[in-house]
Amino acid sequence: MTDPMRMRIIRKEDVADIKMLIFHPMETGYRKNTVTGEIVPKHFIKTLQAQHNGSTVLEVQWSRSVSRNPFLHFRLRGASAGDEIVIAWQDNFGETGGTTAKIK
Amino acid sequence: MLAGVMMFPLRLIAAQWNDKAFNEVDYADSLRSVGAVDLVESDLITLKTPEIAENGSIVPIQVSSEIPGTQRIFVFAEKNPQPLVASFTFHKGVDPFFATRIKMGESASVHVVALADGKYFMASRYVKVTIGGCGE
Known about the structure:
The complex is a heterodimer of chains A (104) and B (136).
Chain A lengths: L4 E8 L2 E8 L22 E8 L2 E8 L8 E7 L6 E8 L4 E7 L2
Antiparallel strand pairs in A: 1-2, 2-5, 3-4, 3-6, 6-7
Chain B lengths: L6 H4 L8 H5 L3 H7 L6 E2 L3 E4 L3 E4 L3 E7 L4 E8 L6 E7 L6 E6 L5 E9 L2 E13 L5
Parallel strand pairs in B: 1-9, 3-9
Antiparallel strand pairs in B: 2-4, 4-7, 5-6, 5-8, 8-9
C-alpha cells in the first residue's frame, strides 16, 4: 500500500495547526489518457471529517476542483498534548482513508 | 500509517455531500443551491489567493472569517464547469479558517461565502490563470 496521507500537527499552547497531504488523484472526469485517448473517469474525495478526542470538529465537502493530492490546513483550539486527532475521508468510488495521531 | 486501526471511528459519521449544489453549472444556481441568499460583502472575511496563478491545477487559497458565529464557509470558482469547489462546516473547537489548493479552469473570481447566524457574507478575489487546470 502506498503512503495514503501525511499529517503534521504543530501545537503552541492550546492552538494546534493541523496540516495534511492526502495522496489521491482527484480526477475531474475531463482529462484524457494521453496514450489511449480515453476519458479518465472522475475519481475524487467527496467528504472528509476531523475528530478531536472523538468529537467531530470539522466536516469538509470537496468537488473535483480540489487539486490532486489534496492539501488541507485547519486550526484547533483547546488542544493539549496527548489529544487524539482522527482524519477520515470518502471518495466517489466508495474508497475510504484517513489517519490518526496524538498531539505533542 | 495505521491504516487498519483508524477505520472504526470513521463509521460514526454519516458524511453529507450536497449533490445538487456541486453539480450546478451556473454560479448563481450554485449559490442558491447552498442556500446563499441576501449576500452581504464583508471585510471580516479574509481570502488569500495568488493574483496570478501560473498553473490552474494548483491554486492555493486561505480563508478565515472573523464574523462571530461563522458555522460554514463555501468556496466558488466562478467559471469552473461546476463552480462550487468546497464546503467547510466548523464545529466547536476549530477556528473558521482553512487553507487548501484548488483547480481553476480559467481566469475568474474566487468567491467565499460564510454562513453565520443564518446570514450569508461574501468576499471575492480575481485570480488570473495562465494555464487552466480543469483538464488535470
